[in-house]
Design goal:
The chain is 34% helix and 19% strand. By secondary structure, it is an alpha/beta fold. The two termini are 29 Å apart.
Length: 136
């Protein structure tokens, strides 16, 4: 059974790589490392994922800042010096306190908030983590 702990999200930004070729990367990784559930997303195309009128993102961090939940709006990368750098777009407080709330981007319009609510309901996170507090 897949669990959130073996779900690996890879976000990158390459406007020259087509959406289909970006999706093919996930299949390649799945064949090489089948014990993980790979989510490979080229953030150059993700602006159309939830809303067709969304303006294109300029880079990966801008895209991550517009993820639906503050606790998932995180990114890490391997720096040139070999260290791992973490960027918490809306801080780590919600994650540390087991709180789920919409990012400012998703809280700004009723239709965006509706997507956030559907997503949170579909994730069923409280089944695995009953101590979560979910804000709407």
């Amino acid at each position: 059974m897949q669990h959130a702990s073996n779900d690996v999200d890879v976000a990158f930004f390459d406007p020259e790589l087509s959406y289909d070729n970006s999706e093919a990367l996930a299949k390649t990784l799945a064949a090489r490392q089948p014990s993980y559930h790979w989510e490979i997303k080229n953030q150059a195309h993700m602006h159309t994922h939830n809303f067709p009128d969304e303006l294109p993102y300029r880079n990966t961090l801008e895209a991550v800042s517009r993820y639906p939940e503050t606790c998932t709006a995180l990114a890490c990368r391997l720096a040139d010096d070999g260290t791992i750098q973490l960027k918490a777009m809306w801080g780590l407080k919600d994650l540390a306190n087991f709180q789920v709330r919409p990012t400012p981007h998703f809280a700004q319009k009723p239709e965006y908030l509706a997507v956030y609510k559907r997503r949170v309901a579909g994730k069923n996170w409280q089944q695995n983590w009953p101590q979560l507090t979910i804000y709407y």
